Amino acid sequence: MVTVTDKAKQKVQELMNDAGLDNSYFLRVSVKGGGCSGLSYNMDFDNEAQTGDQNFEDNGLKIVLDMKSFLYLAGTELDYSDGLNGKGFNFINPNASRTCGCGESFSV
Description:
Low-confidence stretches: none
């Protein structure tokens, strides 16, 4: 399961509202090859489920992961920071053995 903090939920809902997306859309979180640590996080809005998708709901937010990404992201918390030290979404991933300085990529 992937969990979502209150700040992350508010920001996701704000982005969905700004894009004019209705309740049929969900947050798709995935992992792809790349980045300075080997794997990088990807987030997008989607309204079509794929075969093998893992569906979760946390803090009132629907989250979908493909099976490969689920293996890397199980137990991850999605947070959002708007402070002076950096602005954006942060993944707190207990499966990551190493992360890059910007926090956008990781390795296991």
